[in-house]
Every structure is written in C-alpha cells, then in structure tokens.
Design brief:
The chain is of the alpha/beta class and about 575 residues long. The protein folds into four domains: about 180 residues, Thiamin diphosphate (ThDP)-binding fold, Pyr/PP domains (Rossmann fold); about 150 residues, TPP-binding domain (Rossmann fold, 3-Layer(aba) Sandwich), CATH 3.40.50; about 180 residues, Rossmann fold (3-Layer(aba) Sandwich), CATH 3.40.50; about 35 residues, no CATH class. Helix content is about 40%, strand content about 15%. The protein is built from 23 helices and 20 strands. Helix 3 runs parallel beside helix 5 and helix 9 crosses helix 12. The radius of gyration is 25 Å and the shape is globular. The N and C termini lie far apart (about 80 Å).
C-alpha cells in the first residue's frame, strides 16, 4: 500500500471537494503542511497573505462569490488567534469555511512550550465543528468530516493538526464523501401554499422582503411582484439578486438603504418574507403586518417578526407554487406609490451625477463606476459609509457579483475580498471599495495582489473620518465627536510603495481618467478619491413629511441634504389614491 504524509492526505481531501486554492501565512508549527502544499503545488494554489485575518476573510469571500467552500490556515498561537476575525465574519453570515490550524508537536503539547496553547476553546464559539487530531491516520477522515459539517451547518469547521502528525506517513487509501454530497431542499405543502394565497388575496398593501436565501429565485420573485402587485425590498446582502433598475425593486431597508426601501415597511399590512434573517428587521416593519415566511430552516420562523404562515421549503419552489396557485391582483395605490417613490429617489440621486462640488460627492464617482464596470464586474465592499454609497448608487445588473461583511460588519474586508475575487475570476474586472479607515486596517494585502500580479482596482474614499461612527455619534447619541478623526494620508503613494500603480483624484473627470489609465496596466491599482466630509442622506432620521413632522426640522433637513426634490412615501400614496 502506498504511503502519504498526514498533511498531504489532508490536502488531497480538500481538493476532492473542489478546493483549488488555500490562503495563509507560514509558521514553524505549520512546516509539515507547508511541505505538503509544496508537494501539491501543481494542483493546489497557495495564496500567501500578509495577515491571517486577511486569509480568513478571503476564504469567507470565496463562498460568498462562488458558493464553494473556502480554506485558510494559521500557525500555532498568534497565527491561530489572528484567524478569528475572518472566521467570525463567516459564522455571522452563515458561510461554510474550513480553517486548518497548526499545533506544536504532540510531545510538546500542554508543556508550556513556545507558542503552544490550548487552541480548541478559542474556536468553540465560532465553529460548528472544532476538533484536534489525535492520530495521523485520522487526518483524512477528519478533513472530510470537517467539510461535510461546514456545508451541513453553513459555518466554520476548524481542524487542528499537531506538527508531527503532518509529517507522519500513513496509508494512502482514503475515499472522500465529496462525490455523494447533495443538497435537496423540500417543496412546500399544499396546505401552506393555500394559506399563503389566502393572505395575499386579502391584503391591501402587500410587499416582498427577501434575503440571500432567495439567491436562485430572481425570476420567481419578479413573477410574484408582477402578479400580486407587491413591491420588492431586500436585505443588504441580497442586493444584485434582482437588477437595481427593476421598477418594483426598492433596494434594501435600514440605515444603509435607499429611501424607498427604508420607508415602505412601515406602511405594509402583509410581508412575503423569503430567506431573510436580518437582525435589524425587528425595527423596520409594521409590527401589526401579517407575515408569510419561507425558509429552509424552521429555527428562523418568527425570529425577526411574528409569522402567520410558515413555509419550510426552498424559496424557488415555494414562490413558484404560490405564483401558480394565486389569483392576479389589480394595481393598487400602495404598489403604484412604491414605484413612484423609487422614480423620485433615482431622479434625485442622478441630479448630483455631474456635481462639481469640491471635495467631490460620491454620486459623480459612482456614476463613472456604473459606466465603466463590465457586465461581469466583481465588487469587494468594505464596511462603513462606502457600504451606504454602494448600496444606493451602484446599479447591479447582468452577471455582476459582490461581497461584503454583513452581520459581523468587520472593517478591512474589501482588499482581501478583492484578492479572493480575482483568484476565482481572473478574467473579470475586480474592484475593492473602502473608506480610508477600513483601507488602513488590511491595506498590506495590496502586497499579495502585487506578488501574484493581480489586476485589481482598489478605490479608497478618503474623507478623514470614520464616517459611519461619526454619523452615529451625531445623529443617534448626540454626543461630541470622539475618536473618529483620521489623518490626511496619501493612499496613492502608499499603494505605490507596495508596488501598485497609484492615482489621487479630486474630480469626476480625474477619476474617469484614472480608470482609463488603470486599464493600461496589469498591476494592481490604488485610486485615492478625496471625498466630501458630508455624511450620506440619513434614512433613520428623515424629516420630509409635513403631515406629521415639525416643519422647521423638515426645512433644516432638506437644506442639509439638498433634498428639495424629494417627497415622502405618503405623498405618492395620496396621489395614487386620488388617481
């Protein structure tokens, strides 16, 4: 029987599961697995990141962009601990991931040895499966089990390998379960579909609220919207499932959302709630509204809003069944008002596309991005005000993809996620979008982009503040600004120092020229956009409706955000009711 090292056996298993690359940074305790990575260099690509956190974030982004598990590693002690931030991103967004963690040799474990620590407890909270190998022979089976558990529970699996087990020779006879791994979600019951149809028929102002659980059901969502005259609102992470220019799609809801999506939930009397588990949902909808909830996980029913009809089923199957069983509805004032509200918002945003304000507003920059990005562009979006601007201003369409850190919302996500995007989609145009605060956290991963000659356009929006936190301190807690100011930094020169091509821009024309120039190089690019310090339009503290809000506050709000052309949803509802 042929022999193989324990670590080589581990890597053979992950490749059987379709893994083509692995992210990490070597350490002495990981030498045996680095040797296996070298042995299998022709079939498994190793991506050397500059911080283990970035490797874990990139592995999380792998699944977010491709639907296939990502793999990262860390050495014993500090390398293991560094992984945690990226692992928590995967945990909170329900992302399957495998983290391979090194341990010192077994004869040095639990002996107060260099970089030795009891690693399992630190991963107990973040992982759905967390085990340390007890024998070298168990490594291939444990790897297979780790991946199965990660997929089964949509979470992180952690496999810890003592260094000597990685070197040990074992029999090369393990067969994985990868070829028989299947996913088949249930169909809805006839009774639940009938109950849903009955509620839809009786509703006066129904809407659809969908999340990433509906990622394969775009056509069914649009068919339901059109047949039952239900405007569509999504979670933030579900942006792109339906193209942004679809008339009845109002965008997401909550703080980062466009105005129409943030308004509509308070006026609905029925929500068709599809594959969505956003924590903030408890604040964003009429508490008296009835809910038809579709999810594959029964634990989600009623978690964010009381549920009247629960349908445990695949979103695509459930929506198709409801569409087939229900009667078409006539246009309603609620539906027409929602569509008109979106038109008003889109027109208002577009009115700033050619603004010459200095420092530059976000609208001119995103207008250029919408024009220049291809139908297959991939966006890696960091956390902060850049999330707000992306959510409202990028018009997702065709086969564009994007990823961000959702529920965990870790700053620093953008650059390593762009690394993952380009590794997975080498022939697509890839953009990372970050604020200056977030870019500073993991900007060293530009070095990885340079090392592998990856043509990624990294855009830094510099406004010298932690803008998302500044707005919270100003609008929510009404406190003096504290700890949010950032020094003016020349990020283009920082990028050049890393080996990328750098540009500093202050106008729409300069940004457009920088993008054109960026197409002429195959190197990574860093574009430093000197952005306005003004905060984005707030949907949490809007003052637009003189039917119930203070007129002085409305005047102050309208002046602050140049919102003279915006009307509240109630305005369009009243118009629709009188037509």
């Amino acid at each position: 029987m042929a022999k193989i090292s324990g670590s080589d056996a581990v890597l053979k298993v992950i490749q059987k599961w379709g893994v083509k690359h692995i992210y990490g940074l070597p350490g002495g305790s990981f030498d045996s697995t680095m040797n296996a990575i070298y042995n299998q260099r022709e079939t498994l690509k190793y991506i050397q990141v500059r911080h283990e956190e970035a490797g874990a974030i990139a592995a999380s982004a792998d699944y977010k962009l491709t639907g296939k598990i990502g793999v990262c590693f860390g050495s014993a002690g500090p390398g293991a601990v560094h992984l945690l931030n990226g692992l928590y991103d995967a945990k909170e967004d329900g992302i399957p991931m495998l983290a391979i963690v090194a341990q010192v040799p077994t004869k040095r474990m639990n002996m107060d040895f260099f970089q030795a620590m009891n690693e399992e407890p630190i991963f107990d909270d973040v992982a759905v499966w967390n085990r340390t190998a007890m024998t070298a022979e168990s490594l291939p089976m444990m790897t297979d089990e780790a991946i199965r558990q990660a997929y089964a529970h949509n979470g992180v699996a952690v496999l810890t390998i003592p260094k000597d087990f990685g070197w040990a020779e074992i029999e090369d006879n393990f067969e994985t379960n990868a070829s028989v791994h299947t996913v088949n979600y249930p169909a809805p019951t006839a009774e639940s579909v009938a109950d849903a149809v009955k509620l839809i028929k009786a509703a006066k102002s129904p809407m659809i609220y969908f999340g990433v659980g509906a990622k394969d059901a775009a056509e069914e969502l649009k068919a339901a919207s059109e047949k039952f005259k239900m405007p569509l609102v999504s979670s933030v992470l579900a942006k792109g499932i339906i193209e942004d220019d679809y008339p009845a799609y109002l965008g997401s809801t909550g703080r980062v959302a466009p105005k129409p999506g943030a308004e509509i939930g308070f006026s609905t009397d029925l929500i068709l709630w599809v594959g969505n588990n956003v924590p903030f949902s408890i604040f964003l909808f009429n508490k008296k509204a009835k809910v038809i909830q579709i999810d594959i996980d029964s634990e989600k029913f009623g978690k964010r809003h009381h549920t009247n009809v629960a349908i445990q089923a695949d979103a695509k199957k459930a929506l198709a069944a409801i569409n087939a069983a229900g009667e078409a509805r006539d246009d309603s004032a609620f539906y027409d008002a929602a569509v008109a509200d979106k038109k008003n918002w889109d027109k208002w945003q577009a009115s700033f596309n050619d603004s010459t304000e200095s420092p530059v507003r976000p609208e001119p920059i995103f207008d250029v991005l919408n024009q220049e990005a291809s139908d297959k562009a991939v966006w890696a979006i960091d956390v902060g005000n850049v999330n707000i601007n992306f959510e409202r201003l990028i018009r997702m369409h065709d086969d564009q993809k994007w990823a961000t850190s959702g529920i965990y919302a870790t700053m620093g996500f953008g650059v390593p996620a762009a690394l993952a995007a380009k590794v997975n989609y080498p022939d697509r145009d890839v953009y990372s979008l970050s604020g200056d605060g977030a870019f500073a956290m993991l900007s060293e991963e530009i070095l990885a982009q340079v090392k592998y000659n990856l043509h990624i356009i990294n855009i830094v929006f510099s406004n010298e503040t932690l803008g998302f936190i500044e707005a919270e301190q100003t609008d929510d807690s009404h406190q003096p600004l504290s700890g949010v100011d950032l020094p003016d930094t020349d990020w283009a020169k920082v990028g050049e120092g890393y080996g990328a091509v750098g540009y500093t821009v202050r106008t729409k024309a300069e940004f457009k020229q920088a993008l054109e120039d960026a197409k002429k190089t195959d190197k990574p690019v860093v574009i430093d956009v000197k952005l306005t310090h003004a905060m984005p339009f707030t949907t949490e503290h809007m003052y637009l409706d003189d039917a119930w809000q203070d007129k002085d506050k409305i005047a102050e709000f309208v002046k602050k955000y140049d919102a003279q052309a915006l009307k509240p949803f109630s305005y369009f509802l009243k118009q629709a009711q009188t037509n």
